[in-house]
Amino acid sequence: MRVIVIGAGASGIYMAYKLKYNFTDFVLDIYEKNADIGGTWFENRYPGCACDVPAHNYTYTFDPKCDWSSTYSSSREIFQYFSDFVDKHELRQYIASHHEVTETRWDENASEWVVQVYNREIDSTFERRCDFLINACGVLNSWRWPTIPGIQSFKGPLLHTAAWDDNVDLTGKRVGLIGNGSSGIQILPQIQKVAKHVTTFVRKPTWVIPTFGSEMREHTDEERQQFRENPEEYLKMRKATEKVLTGVYPLFINDWPIQTQTAEYMKASMKEKINNEELAEQLIPDFPVGCRRLTPGVNYLESLTLPNVTTLYGEITEITPTSCITSTGTETELDILICATGFDTTFRPRFPLIGRSGHNLQDEWAHEPRSYLGVAASGFPNYFMFLGPNSPVGSGPSIISIEVQGSYIAEFLNRWQKEDIKAFDPKREAVDDFITQKDLFMEQTVWNSNCKTWYKSPVTGKVTALWPGSVLHYIETMAKPRYDDYDVTYASKNRFAYLGNGFSQMEHRPDADTSYYIRARDDGASVADSWGH
Ligand code: NAP
């Protein structure tokens, strides 16, 4: 079985881990466009960049890290975690960095994907074929410049938070900052400390909340030692935090008491921190809490009140070589301009992805991304995605969602190997039903209300980034594939040809326990489970 994974971030690495320990007879190639693994945590290195999920819960669920330096960790420390994981499990052997996938095409006759790969280091393209193509590029990876007239005419350094240039020194400079999403909120308190002046351009209000679950603070050596030496207590702590993260879900349902209570609490907390009526009026939203992704901000609102920070509310109408001009006519002279303006979240693949009948997923999803349960697309056999459209990326913890999807994909790989299958292709009617049900569900959520957010399609305004339910709900949904939602094609004329010579595989192993189903009592497991299927 030949598998190509695109991207070596948290998802691609997990797939490699899964294959290495659960499969035999496979060839795995992971193509990573960057110089190293890590994805988001390799690319996002702006000052103050960190994860706003408590660090002890931002690991694979089965691979904790006792020695995080603080309750919330910097992007570099998170990158190091994934890098150490890759080394510990010897996964680097599968990863080719500096390799960018530029085109993929399903070959119906051969039932395989034909993949064009560009080696950035030697400036050359080659072709590989595989049985499964797994897109692990991530949803927040294709960063974008804002569409503001004149932006490319700006003469000073022009930076994007997701493509940070460490060589640019902000010390003593007049800095402009566009955007107040999670990135803008994290970077402002840090750059304010060194810049002469920061002008932050804010277009829409946003709910800035205290951190999720734990206060931001450094861990002491003693604490780290306790985590290491008391694994049971440490596990209890991780479970308690996870409970808070999964428990946030009812906040997103319209009219639940927690929604109004949180809005009132946050309004009061924001007002107090901003301490300026006019600014509070502009920065506190009128849309429900959670419609945009909640943005935990450590010292963000406080920074807005500092003498070397000016907040300009409104649209930037023009960028000149030396300044930004806003809709009120205010012109601000700047030395450096930072865009914290987010990513392309349309879910259109970055490269042509040509499926059955020559259809390109880039075109099919130009209007609206229509996934099957966030992991597959009809007409694109043996193609799976991590964190595809309508995956659970905003209603609770995210690493578990990656593990759930990896395990789900592994079920298909396993069946493909065992039952001599050629292709799995989700049926179009199954996708249509999923999308209809999802849209119906979204009507009762705050995500559907009157805010601008990357959770929604910029074309249709429908919620395209989020799963219609909680993370726990997703885990249950994905526990077992619904094969009746797939068209399955077999390698042999007879779908049962794989039954072969009539021997169980275990009968070829001299050390196998061939009476595994004899038990002391009914332990509830099915016979197959007791053999570890
Ligand atoms: P974002 O949430 O999409 O925010 C982009 C910001 O740029 C918005 O404030 C947007 O304003 C503004 N913007 C875009 N185009 C503009 C224009 N032409 N003129 C003026 N303003 C413009 O992007 P992000 O802050 O990078 O965050 C994206 C996601 O990444 C987050 O929601 C989160 O999931 C993830 N993230 C996570 C962390 C973490 O700690 N875990 C940190 C950073 C990011 P409008 O709202 O008016 O469009």
From TrEMBL:
InterPro entries: FAD-bind_Monooxygenase_sf (IPR051209), FAD/NAD-bd_sf (IPR036188), Flavin_mOase-like (IPR020946). Keywords: FAD, Flavoprotein, Oxidoreductase. It holds the Pfam family FMO-like. Transmembrane segments: none annotated. PANTHER family: L-ORNITHINE N(5)-MONOOXYGENASE-RELATED, MONOOXYGENASE. Belongs to the FAD-binding monooxygenase family. One of its GO terms (molecular function) is flavin adenine dinucleotide binding. It comes from Aspergillus campestris (strain IBT 28561). The keyword Oxidoreductase applies. Its cofactor is FAD. This is FAD/NAD(P)-binding domain-containing protein.
